[in-house]
């Protein structure tokens, strides 16, 4: 029997949804294999105007063939994969998956692009909880290869394997996490760094602009090539990470002890948000995408030498 044709339904086309649409569009046989569902009243104009900036020019012609709808039932009825990138709201997601299950084919698999809500919380209204798995991309997913695959205890091994194989075949880097944890791994690392950054700005140690330049001229380039364990292992010389901690472990512990204790709503927001707006204005997604592509290309070239 021939393999079933892949048809993807994307629910929600904010920043992540548009990026995922571009990623899918570059690998599907045609735009007609992709359905986008969103409640925007200007959905057609929005997609036509914004999606091209995420795509190489040779794929622009496929955009006109994408199926667009405001109906979840219509979007999922013939889909093999349903991927949602809707609001980060548990009530919304549990209600959405209940509706999706009512109308999707029995063998379709469900992916949530949530930034931190575990699948075991989202699947509570599903009759078949084995179909849902977190596929957490790192923004922008049409460029950055990471996808954190986070099953719930109910997710079937078949769904996990299908998900991994799907992304491997597209040249991505799906990482299967050992268990559920709020925020997953990439998010927890990113938010931990941001929390310390906010603390340092709030304490007037540095400005927003200075903090970013410090990272861009130190850990940024280093971490583009190697993660923290490999980086600090190298920093320890021949003795590796263990030697590094023997040398600077006391300082490391003091930094950990004095780490930023800021919380959302503590009052730092007004000043930090103001500085960020003044320094960067409206985010330049084109610059971000070009820089990310070039960095990844250089790192891959160096690793192949």
UniProtKB/TrEMBL annotation:
Domain 3-hydroxyacyl-CoA dehydrogenase NAD binding, chain residue ranges per copy: 8-177
Major location (coarse): cytoplasm
Keyword 4Fe-4S carried by entry: no
EC number: 1.1.1.45
Gene3D superfamilies reported for this sequence: N-(1-d-carboxylethyl)-l-norvaline Dehydrogenase, domain 2 (1.10.1040.10), NAD(P)-binding Rossmann-like Domain (3.40.50.720)
GO terms under cellular component: cytoplasm
Protein name, per record: L-gulonate 3-dehydrogenase
